[in-house]
Amino acid sequence: MSANVTSTSPSDWKYVSEGGSSIVFSYVGAPSPDFDGTALRLRKVAHYPISPETIVSEDIEEQEDPTILFQCQVIQRLIPSEYLPRLESVDVEGPWLEELARLAEEHRPLERRAKDKIDVRRRKAVLANDLVGGSGWAVEIKPKWGFLPNPTHLSPSTKVTKSQTCRFCMHSHLKTTEGEDASLGYCPLDLYSGEEKRVRKALDVLWDAWVGSSGGVNNFKIFVEGHMLRPTTFPSSLGPIAHQVFSANAAEPSLDTLRDQVISPLLPLLLETPVLRILSTHQRNLDALDIEGLSSLWSETHKPAGSLEAAPVPPLGKGLSQPTIEELENFVDVYLEKHASMDHNHPDTADLRYYCIAYLLSATFKDCSIILRLHPAVGNTPARSSITVIDLDVKSIDRLPTWEKLDQKVVKAYAGVSQPTRCYDRWAPARL
Ligand SMILES: [Zn+2]
């Protein structure tokens, strides 16, 4: 039984932010067990649809949101639900949405107002935990790839490089040479290591990259009472977080002191949680062949039988259909039951689609974020903290060839580095 959001007043919902296709509100009404600490995500619609067909084909009596289905039927079997946001499909009604839209309009940025509005024809919306709003502060970390690849399927030209430097460190190098912001020096294998010294180092480097890029890197973000901070090298730009971690009348701290004070409460949280281990284990298992091994298996499967001439093999992933939710559910059955006993050093061509879907899911885990939430002590309630994994969306299988090309580019750019970073994978399985 889902909560009846239309039993609340539209004025109980405060505008938070919006993206290209959705808009988010947080609950600020009277105390309610159903809605305290929740956020409501609604779909938007353009004022002027591009073509009349978009209106006709728009499925207004929509099914559940695909994000909810994926999380409930796939992700929740791989990550304990206590570490996932509560996502719930809720029913909404036209007049209620119209009133909410009317109240929200003045809070929306002008350029957004000119383009689109809340789609009041929708009958479903998503209710989620409000992970960054309310009192206290939160840190969002995008940890990225937490393992070194299985070396079995690596080619002679990449084996040495890929076995000593992790994918993230190589990619940061490429980004830097292309003038992009990168969290240079941050090694995910440090964050995932479970060793205090290394986790602290990872957090220090993420903080430094965050400040140094004025918040331009996407691996680290800080929210204070629902607002995302934009740091500069002046400590005053970090006033809101300083107020959270120091007493109100403390003198303005130095940047290093502030960094230590912010990182200290995050450290035990990251050392105690099983979440990072769970993420890196799924990343490693699901990417059992590396993209190079997947590509070889693809070529082997598509080689015309008995042909003497070198017939062209279609590019990796060509013609593959996007797996449905049912297929992903079946995949998880096999993954949980048989994956550990499969011989990934000698993959069977009959399992090609299995390995492609596995790679697709590994990409979800390589690209998700975690939110570390710190609630201050209030009255008799002691301070508490929580950790939640977000942005676990299913990726498009059309991206397989893009991922293969990027992998080649990343490794090639790293091949000439005179002093390669040595990344230590503490959880690497013993290989025979
Ligand atoms: Zn690394």
Automatic annotation (TrEMBL):
Catalytic activity, reaction form: 1D-myo-inositol 1,3,4,5,6-pentakisphosphate + ATP = 1D-myo-inositol hexakisphosphate + ADP + H(+)
Known function: Phosphorylates Ins(1,3,4,5,6)P5 at position 2 to form Ins(1,2,3,4,5,6)P6 (InsP6 or phytate).
Name under which the protein is recorded: Inositol-pentakisphosphate 2-kinase
One of the Pfam families matching this protein, by short name: Ins_P5_2-kin
Annotated keywords: ATP-binding, Kinase, Nucleotide-binding, Transferase
Domain notes: The EXKPK motif is conserved in inositol-pentakisphosphate 2-kinases of both family 1 and 2.
Keyword set includes Metal-binding: no
EC number: 2.7.1.158
Organism expressing this protein natively: Somion occarium
Taxonomy of the source species: Eukaryota, Fungi, Dikarya, Basidiomycota, Agaricomycotina
Cell wall biogenesis/degradation keyword on record: no
InterPro entries: Ins_P5_2-kin, IP5_2-K_N_lobe
